[in-house]
Amino acid sequence: MKITTLSLLLLSAVCAHSATVAVSRGGLGVVALTSNNEALSTGGYYIAVGSFTTVPTVTNTPESVLAAVGAFNEFASATSSTTGATVGTVTGSFTGGFSNAALYNGKEIFIMVGNGNSKANSTDFAILKGSTAWNFTADVSAADSIAVILRDVTSFDAVAGTEVDVADPAAKDQVQLWTAIPEVSSSVLVGLFGLGLMSRRRR
Fold first, then answer.
1. Does 191 have pLDDT greater than 60?
2. Alpha-carbon distance 107 to 135, whole Å?
3. DSSP assigned state of 103
C-alpha cells in the first residue's frame, strides 16, 4: 500500500510540471497605448499569452474586437508593472495551467493587452503575434521555458490594434489599442428617452 501511494505521489509531481512563457523586450521594446493614445502605466494593465483555435480577422470595430477577445484561449495572464525600466512596455512572465493543453500544444503564441488591471476591467485591447511566428512547444505540459522577445523595429504584427513603428531610434515602438465597448446608438438613446416620458405620463 505504501509503494502504491509513493508511486501516485511521484506521478502527480511529474504531471504538475509547468511551462513558462517569458515575454521580454529586445532593444527599446514596445509600448502599449490606449485608443486615446494615453500611456497604460497608471494602475497596471492586463497582459496575457495564449492562442486561437481559429485565428480571427479583426477590424477596428467594437464588435469585431470583442469577438476576438472572446475567442482567445488564455494560457496565463498578469498585471504589468507600474514602475521600473519595463513600465508601459509589453513584457511579463506567464506560467500556465494545463486543464486543456491541447489548446496550446504546437500552436502559435499571441499576446493580448488590455487597458485595465484585468481582462474584465479592460475596455481597449490589442492582440499581437510575431512577424516570425512565436510558437508553443509540442507538449506545453512537459516544457520549461518558452522565450518570446518583443522588439521594436517590426518584430510583431498587430492582429487587433494599430502598430506604430517610431522613426526616432531613441524611442520605443508602439501598439495603440482598439476600443471594445460599443457606443450607444442615437436610436437607442431616443428609445430610452421615449420610455422615460411614457413612465412619467403614467404617473
1. no
2. 6
3. G
